[in-house]
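Hi U.,

Before I forget, here's the chain from the pilot set. I'm dumping it here mostly so it's searchable later in email.
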Amino acid sequence: MKLKRLLTAALSAVMALSVCALPAMADDSGTTATTTPKKTASVIDTGKTGSITINKYEYNATNSTDPRDNGEGGTSIPAGAKKLDGVEFTIYRVQDVGWLKQYYQYTGTDTANAPVAQPAITDYVESGKIKASYANKKIASQKTGESPNAEGQVKFNELPLGLYVVIETGKPDSVTKATDPFLVSVPMTSVDEQNWLYDIIVNPKNKTEYAGITLQKKGMTGNTEDSTDMGGYKFKLEKYVEGSSGAAGTWTPITKATKNGVDNAGTALDLTTSAVDGTIVVSDLSAGVYRFTEETSTGKYGYIVDGTTHYIFKVNGKNIEEITDDTEKTKYSEAGYTNIFDATDATGNQVNVYNYRPDVEKKVTDRESNSGKEAYYNIGDSVPYVVTVKVPKNIVSLKKFSIDDTPTNLEDDSASVKVYKGDSAVTGFYNVTQKGNGFTISFTPSRMSDYAGETLTIKYNAKLLDSASVDAAGNSNAVKLHYSNQILPTTIPGEGPTPTENTIEDTTYVYTFRIDIVKTAEDKTTRLGGVVFDLYKQVKTSKLTTEEAGKKITKEEAEKLGLPVDADSTWTKITTLTTSIDEDPAKKGTAEYKGLAKGTYYLVETKTVDQYNLLSAPVKVELNVSATTTWTEESAYDAKGNLVKHDVSKKTTEFVNSKDASTGYVVTNIINRKGFQLPVTGGFGTLLFSGIGVLLVLAGVSVLFSLKKKNKRA
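Structure:
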């Protein structure tokens, strides 16, 4: 009987001392390693309290020889292990010091009067949670790294002695699997087996996974992707946090990098796109659902900042995933916003974010139906213009989209304004109003869904006025597109903050020229005033304007005037000119007419000075002047992102084949000669000619009488 009792006591001691190994470090598989039980000769001091310190690490290497914890903190930490914050531990005192003494001192018995058995974690924990019967045994919960704890650490102080269950009740999203619950005996035996250890140190490790994401900023004009470097666009990054007790989740800002496995714990994130490549790169995102939303821009390229679009993606371990499930999409979508879930592309973990902008270009059509930045016309002509508008793809979200047309020395015909998509005229989403000599087209963006990303063409005419300039300044006609450069969130449709605006401006020019006449006598010095000319121009019949058609002359009239005639052309009379009778030597004998397009003209003299002969044929005048325009700065953005494509203040124009490089005109010198002087009435010459005439008449009469007599005799 004594031998039996001795064996029973020895076995109980071995089982009891094995509890000392329960706080060992969890290995990568989550199982708890055990060591050989150790025996101590000392007695537990029931007057003391103890502590449990847990140092938490993230460790993703695989090493089967990792040393196990000894409870004294002397275990070396594997290379590559990093402190892990944000892990919550909850401890439960499931047995008191009395039970502990009975267990270790072999005096306790169970209902069968047998020694107390070695406890197992499953006695107290089920499915990773404390059993209901022990829920009231909770002592405290703490998170690693949370004040007053150090990084990666929690410390439970002043603990009454007993047996504790430690459960990892919370973990950051970076942790792929929580540490399995484990038991800790306070106290436990020291490494040297001579003493009881009241302050226990445990070093569990967790595997973690992170994903990196690149936001790539791209620009698009109309429906065409640009090559512009999209730097200076600021975004916010948010993460979805599940609600508790069935409540809706919320989005929390992510403004700092992950540190020690915890979101928002490191250095501040730079969420502004790079000037080099237009990207934002965020590393080490823990598992969860995130969204990028654009906020502001320092870019100067006129793109529209869209604050009402969320770019939503999911981090799953090391991967970025698109959300395709409709239920999930509904869960993560926010009313009043465009929610985009296309989060990856062929390049890997990347979100492509496009910014849109419109464009406008203006051209003037010349008399040969060619379109460009300049043309030549007569005063009074109807000048055709074409404005091309590239509509941004997010047009329906804009609050303003309008066009101002501002002519100089021209008058727009607002009634002639037509808007086309392709070859078809379109209506119903804009209004045209006269504005001075120009007009304004006010578009209604909310009605333009059919034209998002499309190109619209605006055609109209303008009349070149009498005030037209013939110098290098030309006669400009500028178009300016006004548009909202921000889409701002609002909970009330049609209301909310007013966005700022950008403009795009483009300008064309009409040039018109002048003919100067200098009328002199044969000596090329004496000026002749009062000489009258009619000015004509030959125009191709197919290009005849309405104004010219009202002044055309017939083919017969042209031939009578000596004007060259062909089957395809028509002659129009432009005006009548009279040379000046001013006695000022610089003015006398001169006439001018401004407002002529380049081409060939004819002057027909209809009245001249007494004693001078009218010209026997029209005078041909070649008005072959052309403008050479240089834009010293094109497509220049100002500090606010406004674009001026053809800046009036940056233009230089010189005239070629003109009398002067800064004024478009030609000078035609016309000489009149005096006629022959006939004798005056009553002079000898007159009598002589009269006598000869009488003699000729008499001779004729004599011949007639002679012929009659011969006829009678016959």
